[in-house]
Amino acid sequence: MAVPKRKVSKARRDKRRSQVWKLSAPAFSRCPQCGELKLPHRVCGNCGYYKGKEVIASKEA
To answer: pTM for the complete prediction?
Structure first.
């Protein structure tokens, strides 16, 4: 059975483990209809449009 020849230092171990926990912020895009920030590939929460078509009827009208 393979056995490590030397002890792995805490710094080396923690550097390796820290890569798992990196998170990136979600990317936002502007809605072409109203200009509001929204998540990509989602219906705009402000105007209810997706890809130039009204998907959700707005409450204003």
So the answer is: 0.52
In a domain, residue 10? The reply is no
Token pair for 55:
């998907």
| Under 8 Å between Cβ of 49 and 55 | yes
**Considering its fold, how many domains does the chain have in total?**
1
Cβ burial of 44 (10 Å; 0-12, 13-18, 19+) is: buried
Other Cβ atoms closer than 10 A to 47: 19
Q: Would you mind telling me the total number of residues written for the chain in this entry?
A: 61
User: For residue range 39-56, what is the model confidence (pLDDT) as tens digits?
Assistant: 999 999 889 999 888 888
Q: Which domain holds residue 59?
A: 27-61
